[in-house]
Amino acid sequence: MLFISGQIPQTPDGHVPTAPEAQCRLVWHNIQAILADAGMDVDNLVKVTTFLADRRFAEVNTQVRNEVLGTHRPALTMIVTGIFDPEWIIEVEAIAVA
Questions:
Q1: Selection from 54, 57, 37 nearest residue 98 by Cα
Q2: Of 95, 97, 8, residue with least CA distance to 48
Q3: What is the helix (H) or strand (E) element at residue 91, kind and residue range?
């Protein structure tokens, strides 16, 4: 089992994109990189929890997530809540099983 702690929309050099879609894509890029390092891919995900700063980002989050996951459908939870950094609109944690 691989537990992926909350992934944030920030590059290694600290850049946070301003566009919601770019933030969602960056978070999923980070998740895919962690999965690849463990010899896994998105098909190994069994649970994904998404934290959104506002409901208005739900549609773009769903669009990007569905694009990344394709037909794979792990258990999903979305929570609208305050997020640690006001620049972030999204944070995603996940569980994968080999």
A1: 37
A2: 95
A3: strand 90-96
Residues found in the chain = 98
Mean pLDDT of 78-94: 96
pTM for the structure as a whole: 0.95
The first and second tokens of residue 61, run together, are 């989050």
Beta strands in 43-89 (DSSP E): 45-52, 75-80
The letter for the amino acid at 1 is M
CA dist 3 and 64 (Å) reads 21
Q: What kind and span of H or E run contains 21?
A: helix 20-37
pLDDT in tens, 1-34: 999 999 999 999 999 999 999 999 999 999 999 9
- Please name which of 86, 83, 64, 65 lies closest in space to residue 74, comparing C-alpha atoms: 65
Q: What is the CA radius of gyration of the chain?
A: 12
